[in-house]
Design a protein that fits this description.
about 100 residues; alpha+beta
């Protein structure tokens, strides 16, 4: 999930904060208004920061198949998964 700065203009570069919890059993990103309650992320937007929030492989509430990929390989998948998604988010918005 990408939170753009309040004054975001195309082609401009903005400082970017990565918000991630890489452990199991937590889901940060969801298709709901729950994420709106993160006032610290809102404050960063107001002050001109972009925030990339992501769940790494193994986050809960996505099914056993999604979580099982990590068994005995958590560090490898979480690191590569996070890197790939951060690069994608940064390329999409030219931050």
């Amino acid at each position: 999930m990408l939170y753009k700065p309040m004054s975001c203009r195309e082609g401009e570069k903005y400082p970017t904060m990565l918000y991630v919890y890489g452990g199991p059993c937590v889901q940060l990103v969801s298709n709901s208004q729950r994420s709106v309650r993160r006032l610290n992320l809102y404050a960063l937007q107001v002050f001109g920061y972009a925030v990339v929030m992501l769940d790494t492989m193994g986050s809960c509430n996505r099914g056993i198949r999604f979580e099982a990929v990590l068994q005995n390989r958590m560090n490898f998948y979480n690191t590569n998964d996070a890197r790939t998604r951060v690069e994608k988010a940064l390329n999409e918005v030219l931050l």
